[in-house]
Amino acid sequence: MNPEFLAQLNATCASIPAAMASAKVTALSGLAVTIAGLGGLASVGDRVSLMRRNGDSIPAEIIGFSGEHARAMAFGNLDGLASGSDVRFPVFIGSRAPQPGGSLRVSDGWVGRIIDPLGRPLDGKGPLPPGPSRPVRTSPPDATLRARLGPRIDLGVRAMNLFTTCREGQRLGLFAGSGVGKSTLMSMLARNTACDVAVISLVGERGREVREFVEDDLGPEGLARSVVVVATSDSPPLMRREAAYAALTVAEYFRDEGKSALLLMDSVTRFCQALREIGLSVGEPPATRGYPPSVFAELPRLLERAGPGIVRPDGSAGQISALFSVLVEGDDQNEPISDAVRGILDGHIVMDRRIAESGRYPAIDVLRSLSRTVPGCNSPDENALTRRARAILATYSEMADMIRLGAYRRGTDPKVDEAITLQPILENVLTQDKHERATLQQSFAALRDALSGQPARDKPVTPAMAVS
């Protein structure tokens, strides 16, 4: 008999519960449902079904306990649920018990598909081909057994290739306020980054923008090598939280297959907001800006799952190169989530609203952005180029007000004179259309030309403001 058929048959049999326990809803408070009658059968993370009066079921998860009563939160809306409604809980025996937090059966056939956080297709292309079951919530690989970061990876974005050069398995944060262009930048990375597969998690995305992102920004070429996990802003907090876990689970599958996976999550802030809603519903005390302590405990558990995998017997290892966007509230780069994420990741990219308003995209502030693997992954010549470019941009930034006011006279300081001459050419190098791809070699060649006073090819240079 076919071994694959036997494996699928065993998996199907293991998914059949030995019995179905019944309990009752006793209270509804906000987003939380209180359940009586489960006794010692259920644990945190177990899945139950809440039965509406019309017979439909709502999947839910146990999130806590109050005495002998279980507290659950639903993956859907609670319409039609009442005090006394039935709750059904599947009971398994021994090792057949499902993993708390649920599981996904990821396979190579998921590439090119759009799914929800529970692993259900959203693109109308039929059922997803099943693979081996993987727990959605798991620990990061053992730190002492993980591989080291791989070679540098071509991101296809000139500003990032030059000033935040990234290695395979590295994790970067993209910090930006609303409307600064982070979603467009992430679509550029999904299309252009040199990787085997991209996993894109849209956590709390605006519903009307999903098709625009997939069809216009990502495009057929980007979607063909991507798995997109979507939970829109109107989804319950459990679904928004699960979108992050599901994306990590999919990326871990490809990493464990020895592939180089790119994980793009937009955004960590909305994941934390979902955790805040869940924590407050359970009764956790609010702490910094209303976020309960569990949010800051969960963040490293999520973010540390990305990165290099365990070294395989042949010495190779799969990698998850990750970019997590952070929606900076009020453009405050030191707000709690930004501060916590910045301390965990291997570098940060700051997008500035003033740069976006000036018309330069992507609006990356290279002076406030860094990658912790630089200068180790670049050659000495490349490091010298980026150091000189940073110094020129920093000099111009310091003197910008005096230059605009006409208070600086050319010839007073050679460094300032050089910055006035080269700053518009460097700004031109940092400007990139969203459909343009720039390789690492092309990026450093353009920077070398710019520092020698030569504008990038086919790009007009806006002259600097005249000074007396």
From TrEMBL:
Lineage top rank: taxon: Bacteria
Gene3D superfamilies hit by this protein: 3.40.50.12240
Compartments reported by the entry: Cytoplasm
Region (Disordered): 121-144
Alphabetical list of InterPro entries matching this protein: AAA+_ATPase, ATPase_a/bsu_AS, ATPase_alpha/beta_chains, ATPase_F1/V1/A1_a/bsu_N, ATPase_F1/V1/A1_a/bsu_nucl-bd, ATPase_T3SS_FliI/YscN, FliI_clade3, P-loop_NTPase
Pfam family, one: T3SS_ATPase_C
Protein name per Swiss-Prot or TrEMBL: Flagellum-specific ATP synthase
Catalytic activity: ATP + H2O + cellular proteinSide 1 = ADP + phosphate + cellular proteinSide 2
Keyword annotations of the record: ATP synthesis, ATP-binding, Bacterial flagellum biogenesis, Bacterial flagellum protein export, Cell projection, Cilium, Cytoplasm, Flagellum, Hydrogen ion transport, Ion transport, Nucleotide-binding, Protein transport, Translocase, Transport
UniProt family annotation: Belongs to the ATPase alpha/beta chains family.
Upper lineage: Bacteria, Pseudomonadati, Pseudomonadota, Alphaproteobacteria, Acetobacterales
Record carries keyword Protein transport: yes
AAA+ ATPase domain location: 168-356
Main location (coarse class): cytoplasm
Function: Probable catalytic subunit of a protein translocase for flagellum-specific export, or a proton translocase involved in local circuits at the flagellum.
Documented EC number(s): 7.1.2.2
